[in-house]
Specification:
Length: 497
């Protein structure tokens, strides 16, 4: 890039420094997180168990045995990808693009950019998702659990991971390369992201160099790549994966358990709430602050659908029945977390809009030199981020329906029972050409490393988000933020953190 060209690039705000431990951290995450997706797929499977038996006896582990138990493709690493599967995935993305362009939707302007301009967005993710799911419902009505979409997802699970990973990688490279054409005063209102212009290729590619990359496609029109990925292919894919796992459970056992229904309902409500409230993304950090790079592309298109749905995938093979007491317990956890989450957010919003509202007028607060106010009592005196605490408690309701997880698959067992029958309260007989037993045995408890991984990951995510929030507050409030921290000591969990 010539000196004159460098000067023409639209300057971003002052760099906020590195996140994720800088370039080394970005490299580790870029390589490590995709491996986690594959690891979860192979270590917890319907071939040998969850986890695979050799994981419980590592001294007996051999490469040949590992491949057999993990269901490693017969044609090796090349079996992780498929041109045919990738073609169907691209067709799904194209359908999402067509629906965004063709269906009516709410047109709204985003927040003001540093240049003073505002970008225009079209929102119809909810109606687009409903259209696709209606098609899936018709297919299921006609073909039942054997509907081609559900069997395709189950039979090509790892290849679907690869296809979406390839799309995320390609998009990241495309927007990174294209970001160098952003110039000051451009008519397309393009800008660089505050934290994505460190000058380090790996870090900027990962974190995202351009704030809101857009592309104009023939017939379809202008697409905001980041906003499209945020709520469309991956979020709906999350629901489609869950539904495919429900169909597979029914196909194997002839029934659908309360546990997998509960998880699918919880996660579908989560997704459709986000789709219905799609305009709300305009004020999120993902849209206003973060650039679009591999971090968001991978997170939206791969990590979210394939990691968040691990519990339903587990239950597709081990159909745990919760019973009335189990259902009530899970619902109680969900309700408790939601109560904290909603009460904390309502308290903050009421204080911001009308401090004299009798429901929050009694709350204590401190004024800052910047002219703002910080609540120091109520939920926001309990800890600095009570909404995150509620969010994390709700996350447990996604994993608790899997119980004390873990199972072993025993093939060709000489048991004369119908598929779906229970064995001594411990396991099940699955259907298919060759019936096999799914028992917990010595795997009981070890499967929780998979099914409760979401709870651990979500805690890390919320702590990282909390640290980013507090860094921004430190810059905004200065010394007043230190005084606030003396009043409200705990970040997320009083007495612990």
């Amino acid at each position: 890039m010539s000196k004159s060209t460098r000067k023409s690039v639209l300057p971003a705000t002052k760099s906020h420094g590195y996140e994720f431990q800088g370039p080394p951290g970005a490299l580790v995450l870029s390589l490590g997180l995709p491996l986690v997706c594959y690891l979860a797929a192979f270590v917890c499977n319907d071939v040998s168990g969850c986890p695979i038996p050799s994981a419980l006896h590592p001294r007996s582990l051999t490469l040949a045995k590992l491949k057999e138990e993990a269901g490693w493709p017969q044609d090796g690493i090349w079996g992780l990808a498929s041109v045919r599967v990738s073609g169907f995935v691209l067709a799904y993305y194209l359908l999402s693009l067509v629906l965004q362009a063709a269906l009516p939707g709410l047109v709204q302007q985003g927040v003001k950019l540093r240049s003073g301009a505002r970008l225009e967005y079209k929102f119809n993710a909810f109606s687009s998702a409903v259209t696709i799911l209606l098609g899936a419902a018709i297919g299921t009505y006609l073909d039942g659990a054997d509907f081609a979409l559900w069997t395709f997802i189950w039979d090509h699970y790892t290849q679907l991971i690869t296809a979406n990973l390839a799309i995320a990688f390609a998009l990241s490279c495309f927007v990174y390369y294209r970001s160098f054409s952003v110039k000051a005063g451009n008519k397309h209102k393009r800008e660089l992201a505050p934290g994505g212009h460190s000058g380090n290729l790996i870090y900027d590619w990962f974190i995202g160099r351009e704030l809101n990359p857009r592309i104009t496609l023939p017939v379809i029109g202008t697409i905001d790549i980041k906003a499209f990925c945020e709520l469309r292919p991956g979020m709906l894919g999350y629901v489609l994966l869950d539904l495919a796992f429900v169909a597979h459970q029914y196909k194997l056992y002839g029934f659908v358990t309360d546990s997998i229904i509960l998880i699918t309902v919880f996660q579908s409500v989560y997704v459709f709430d986000a789709l219905w409230m799609e305009p709300a993304i305009l004020s999120t950090m993902d849209i206003t602050t973060d650039g679009f790079g591999f971090m968001l592309a991978f997170g939206d298109l791969v990590w979210l659908p394939f990691i968040y749905s691990l519990q339903a995938r587990y239950l597709a093979v081990y159909p745990l029945h919760l019973g009335l007491s189990g259902i009530v317990g899970v619902l109680a956890v969900q309700a408790f977390g939601y109560w904290i989450f909603r009460a904390a957010n309502n308290e903050k919003n009421r204080f911001r809009t009308n401090p004299k509202d009798p429901r929050i007028a009694h709350l204590e607060y401190m004024k800052t030199s910047s002219g703002g106010t910080l609540l120091t009592s109520g939920w926001w005196g309990f800890c600095r981020h009570p909404n995150y605490l509620g969010d994390w408690i709700m996350a447990w309701s996604y994993s608790l329906p899997t119980g004390i997880a873990g199972y072993i698959v025993k093939h060709g067992s000489p048991v004369v029972m119908s598929h779906g029958d229970m064995i001594d309260g411990q396991g099940f007989i699955s259907g298919g050409p060759v019936k096999h037993q799914v028992l917990q045995g010595e795997a009981r408890g070890w499967g929780m490393l998979i099914t409760y991984f979401y709870v651990l990951y979500f805690a890390v995510l919320l702590i990282h988000r909390q640290l980013r929030d507090e860094e921004a507050c430190q810059r905004k409030y200065g010394d007043d933020w230190e005084k606030y921290k003396e009043k409200v000591r705990w970040r997320l969990l009083p007495g612990i953190y």
